[in-house]
């Protein structure tokens, strides 16, 4: 009877582990497929001097690398319209 409880405990532990692992894998996929930020969200995150504009000094990463392509009126700031019309990054192809 004691070995039956041990086997049941091991099986339940394995099932719990598999559910936890599966849930974690699914949440990672959701994060990768996350929607891009809205302009308002971008302002909240990046507008360090709170002037309601996004300058090249306030951005980093791919947004900074592509700043000049996005800032089509060349005023040194990214407007909401420019952000919405910005070229979308290309997806990497899987083999």
Automatic annotation (TrEMBL):
| EF-hand domain sequence ranges | 58-93
Q: Which UniProt keywords apply?
A: Signal
Keyword hit for Signal: yes
- Listed Pfam families: EF-hand_5 (PF13202)
Show which residues constitute the signal peptide.
1-25
Coiled coil, from the record = none
Q: What are the recorded GO MF terms, alphabetically?
A: calcium ion binding
Supply the InterPro entries for this chain: EF-hand-dom_pair (IPR011992), EF_Hand_1_Ca_BS (IPR018247), EF_hand_dom (IPR002048)
Q: Per the record's keyword annotation, is Nucleus included, yes or no? A: no
Task: State the name under which the record lists this protein.
Answer: EF-hand domain-containing protein
């Amino acid at each position: 009877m004691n070995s039956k409880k041990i086997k049941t405990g091991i099986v339940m532990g394995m099932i719990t582990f598999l559910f936890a692992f599966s849930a974690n894998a699914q949440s990672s996929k959701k994060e990768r497929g996350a929607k891009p930020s809205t302009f308002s969200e971008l302002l909240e995150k990046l507008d360090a001097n709170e002037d309601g504009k996004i300058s090249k000094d306030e951005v980093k990463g791919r947004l900074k690398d592509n700043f000049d392509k996005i800032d089509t009126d060349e005023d040194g700031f990214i407007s909401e319209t420019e952000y919405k019309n910005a070229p979308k990054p290309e997806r990497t192809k899987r083999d």
